[in-house]
Amino acid sequence: MMMQTPLTMTQMIRRAEKFFPKKEVVSRTGSGIQRFTYKTIAERTKRLAESLQKLGIKRGDKVGTLAWNHHRHLEAYFAIPCSGAVLHTINIRLSPQHIIYIINHAEDQALLIDPDIFPLIEKVKDQLTTVKAFIVMCAEGEMPETTIESVYNYERLLQEASGNYEYPDDLDENAPAGMCYTSATTGNPKGVVYSHRGIVLHSMALGMADSAAVSEKDIALPVVPMFHVNAWGLPFAAVWFGTSLVLPGPYFTPKLIAELIEAEKVTITAGVPTIWLGLLKELDENNYDMSSLRSVLCGGSAAPRGMIKAFEEKHGIPFMHAYGMTETSPLVVISSLKSYQEELSSEEKLNIKAMQGILVPGLEMKVVGKDGEASWDGKEMGELAIRGPWIASGYYRDERSDEAFRDGWLYTGDVVTVDEEGFMKIVDRTKDLIKSGGEWISSVDLENALMAHEAIFEAAVVSVPHEEWQERPIACVVLKEGYKGTVTKEELYTFLQPQFAKWWLPDDILFMEEIPKTSVGKFLKMRLRDQVRTMSSELK
Ligand code: AMP
């Protein structure tokens, strides 16, 4: 029998310190770009762990972060779990009510806060029931003025630490290491707790050659926020593997992302489609050297086929579509072509790349249709269910767990088809599918088709109630800058007609200035549906 050594996160930061002390973390904060070696990051991480202990943080205590992607947040990513506490990353774009709810629900004992987010916390401070220490993540000279007691400066705490701290060796691999709340359709956000073991195994999956293949040779730029499913786990894998990191900091623009990729010779970057649509526009308008990029990882919502084509064929940048959720750490499937699929035509290959991909090793999936498991024929739809060592087994102290977690499986609420090759395609969220005359219409398919039109920047399709057909689709489109006023509805219908059955075509196409988005940059279909339903009833 093999040894039972625990899969804990301490081995990750220790490995970076021992094997990759010279490798770099480039960090952009409110005060500019700084460079650190992993040696320095590892030392500072231990100082932070020691400071938290001095402030009374014990094993199992939750420590919240309200921060952008930068080196101090990276240090918190390891100092908190490696000392036995729980890293609770808080989505700073949520409403103050939801932020108050999740801090109280998680029972955070301390908060690490970016200076620009501090005013928000100051306003709601009296409603926070468990927080004993507020640590502002900036240099001493950048401290905001405040009347709150128990406010500490991050750099001062690190200076005052002895530097003799060592991580405990007896952490349990099944102990909680992190947590993150995901927005619910209705009601308060739901908490997901990540174990050390889950994070270690998920990081291994990110390193697999047919997955994201994160390695020491990479320079990784996580654009996806560190408060959105741990920046998809990239910072954990990067530190463990000695990958250089580029952290883009607050309020970045597509221009800044393009400049960082060029200047730092980034090889892999990750973000939601909205980010990549913005970058594409920047690349179309200005010249950058993007030749270092080997992979643009895209997930969070469906990557439009037209966008993948533009990245790959117009700009020569390899694109990689992936799917996951907060509940799944997040990586579940990833679109990497099989060896024999490389022989296909470029259009056929694009069709495959536009699908979300195949299951990563280590997980199990099933597709539950109307009458049991759906067949893998690329046509029959069903709800995707998943299980595995980095999949949550329930929501944190939440009665809503039973809706999604049944018989040892996570029911994702995503409707999918799987083809004969095992490639999964998201058809829709269960609640976003459009049911017209008893048949399903995929809003995602219509959106993808519209976004392939040269004049369209973004498109979202939602349903409106219909007396005869129950529901009908309405398309909302945002035109690219130079095309405003030049494209008619009729032209867009002519473009869609050859691609879809007649009954799939939207009942109307509405031109909009922008499509409402969620806190993590996805289409906010609920709000859009309300807007469209109000607009269409006003028209009647
Ligand atoms: P979140 O927990 O905020 O990351 O949201 C997870 C949800 O985002 C999933 O359940 C899917 O509905 C959606 N999603 C994630 N990745 C993709 C993708 N590649 N294509 C389509 N939808 C996606």
From TrEMBL:
The protein's superkingdom reads Bacteria
Q: State the CDD domains in the record.
A: ttLC_FACS_AlkK_like
InterPro entries attached to this UniProt entry: AMP-bd_C, AMP-bd_C_sf, AMP-dep_synth/lig_dom, ANL_N_sf
- Identification of the protein by name: Long-chain fatty acid--CoA ligase
Q: Where is the AMP-binding enzyme C-terminal domain?
A: 446-522
According to the entry, every stretch annotated as the AMP-dependent synthetase/ligase domain falls at 18-396
The answer to whether UniProt assigns keyword Ligase to this entry is yes
Protein keywords: ATP-binding, Fatty acid metabolism, Ligase, Lipid metabolism, Nucleotide-binding
Q: Output the NCBIfam families linked to this UniProt entry.
A: PRK06187.1
Into which family does the record put it? Belongs to the ATP-dependent AMP-binding enzyme family.
Give this protein's Gene Ontology molecular function annotations: ATP binding; ligase activity
The answer to keyword Metal-binding applying to this record is no
The organism named in the record is Bacillus mesophilum
- What biological processes does GO assign it? fatty acid metabolic process
* Pfam families attached to this UniProt entry: AMP-binding (PF00501), AMP-binding_C (PF13193)
